[in-house]
Amino acid sequence: MAQSHLLGLPRIGAKRELKFALEKYWREETSQEELQQVAHSIRQQNWSTALDKGIDWLTVGDFSFYDQVLDTSILLGVTPERFENGKADNLLDNYFRIARGSAPQGSQVQPSEMTKWFNTNYHYIVPEFNQEQQFSLNLDLLQPQIDQAKDLSSKVKVQLIGPVTYLWLGKSRDQTDFNKLGLLPQLVKTYQQLLNHLEQQGIEWVQIEEPILALDLDDSWVNAVTQAYTELGADAGVKLLLTTYFGHITDKLDRIAELPLDGLHLDLVSGGNEQLAEVAQNWPKSKVLSVGIVNGRNIWRNDLKSSLDALKQSKERYGDNLWVSSSCSLLHSPVDLNSEQQLDDELQSWLAFAEQKVQEVADLSKALNHGSEAIKESLQASDVAVASKKSSSRVHNSNVQQRVAAISELERQRKSEFAQRKNAQREHFRFPLLATTTIGSFPQTDSIRQARRAFKSKEIDEQQYTQAIQQEIQQAIHEQEAIGLDVLVHGEAERNDMVEYFGEQLNGFAFTQFGWVQSYGSRCVKPPIIYGDVSRKQAITVEWSKYAQSLSEKKVKGMLTGPTTILAWSFEREDLSAPQIADQIALALRDEVLDLEKNGIDVIQIDEPAFRELLPLRKSEQPQYLEWSVNAFRLSTAGVADTTQIHTHMCYSEFNEIIDSIARLDADVITIESSRSDMELLQTFNDFQYPNEIGPGVYDIHSPRIPTKDEVSELIQQAAKHIPVDQLWVNPDCGLKTRNWDQVRPALKNLVDAATEARQQL
Ligand code: GLN
Ligand code: ZN
Predict the structure, then answer these.
(1) pTM (predicted TM-score)
(2) How far apart are the C-alpha atoms of 514 and 707, rounded to whole Å?
(3) What average pLDDT score do residues 560-587 get?
(4) 3-state SS, residue 421
(5) Beta strands in 48-154 (DSSP E)
(6) Whose CA is nearest to atom 5 of ligand 1?
(7) ipTM of the complex
(8) Can you tell me the mean pLDDT for 572-585?
(9) How many Å apart are CA 407 and CA 399, to the nearest integer?
(10) C-beta of 607 in contact with ligand 1 (< 6 A)
(11) What is the chain's percent helix, strand, coil content, to nearest 5?
(12) Is 16 flagged in the annotation as binding?
């Protein structure tokens, strides 16, 4: 019989129970026992769901109080030295200190770094190694979960991050770089002990995850995989399911096939169905092949019929050794579609959240074993959904499609080259050298939140709401004028979220009530769903911008979110390619840009903070991505006159590999994060001879600290070493919405004073 299993389930709970329990615990409003209770019941709920729906194997190790990589660090005894000082007397508090710097017990300490988990929006806690790193098993987090699962089923599979990926994810801190791979032999020994322990627990299968196999890896890392699994596989005592996801592994398949493994999991969704043919030539029938065919990172219902077609041949070849699963852990999907009360029936029928995906995995395996008849109803519902989506008029809008088909390359081209525009803009704006500006948002104060809440709950009407927001805009403008900034912003008080706000005013987008996905720790995001062709209902930001501009003699920047970022932070369609969706969004934004321009807004910023995030993991796929992403940005911006200044903003500082694409965006001004990297990133711009203007962040807004004037001056001097002064702007790293006015006011004042002083010294 084919078997069904899951790579992992969401752990936040259908109503974000874990989030609320964690935050209560951190505020010291509940005990650790109560927190453990919530964790226990989420796991119980998850496993019961899996069993009820007919999943064969329970997966243990997918639960985490904060992050699974941090759990792995605890499991392997990797905790950086600085956490030893002022230690709490219990594991969980020390765990939270590493994750977030504080806990009910134990002293405050600088937390470990956090970074994105491959190409997802999930963030993990980066392990910190030193050269003499020792590893030692600590089962305190894992063992209770194993015990709990064993009470429910005898078929328990343990999920672990594999040793090579674990090493790859970590970094060395406060030390000159050393070769992390030097730690591998000792780490493998510790894994050996772990596997032996699991064997003694009666565990049959271990899902050992090496997602780095889906990357372009140096030989040294591929060799490390060979070395690790040659040893681990030799006398593991448990069966090893080498698990990969987020891409194909065909380039390494021959190496992997030689290893003493018992099973292999492939992600067919991001790696492509073609992998099945490749694998059939390399991977023996006598071993388990697990196929991840239900998308773990999206919200669309599976097309069961075509999935069954794709699996047929594998079933013939692998028979009982075929396992069916989700592409990756369902951690990246929202929890339960049944929580949604406000979606219409049609849209709802197209969707599947984690719970529904569990059913799909179980159904597929059932159909492989007992024929399609066995899942007749599910198949029918899936067929109906596929058909209705294909023909639905809310999905397909021929006007939008025709407009996209008719895009001419000229529309992606500004009227003149930057060199010429620059002169026209100098003449037109007469901004000072080292002009000062901010990135867009100002503090989200209680009064803003209150107004938004009151409007949502209909306590105040639209007119009252508009007045309330105008009041906020007025304040922001007055503050900025008092501070003396050169180019102002309206402050984004009307926006809860930079993607949701635009999605709400575009056709083709839908919003859920409970479609939360964990982003990090207790933080969750609720991405909109792009289900249909995108078009603008009406002007989105024009009235707010016009109002803001009417209050000042200075220029007030229009503020939009770019096509790639809107796409990246939404659940995207599966029936239309990303470049096409991006172009649809870009056309809607283009109209908005032109409307702003028509209404006298001639400095317009289009944020693209997700530009780098969507960069494919594989080098070979990057040029194509960069091409469409740059093209979409250009389509949204290029319609304006030479004397309209286009800004963009990105909040990260690694540009080396993509600098030519950044230049191809052809924004007149780009503002970027950089204050923490001592302006080193500007070297990249310098080496490239980046021609357009740049505003490197000189105020780190991620910290409540107020930079002194001297600190800002120092950063301006540094910047001026790399970039000619007449190309430089002076601004913070990112938007200020997470700060409060008592921090922002003096910080910006120092920033303006530093710029003024620097100008005088020129
Ligand atoms: N304009 C946005 C803001 O200031 C940019 C946010 C971002 O870069 N993520 O909040
Ligand atoms: Zn930013």
Answers:
(1) 0.95
(2) 39
(3) 97
(4) helix
(5) 58-60, 114-116, 123-125, 128-129
(6) 735
(7) 0.99
(8) 97
(9) 13
(10) yes
(11) 50, 15, 35
(12) yes
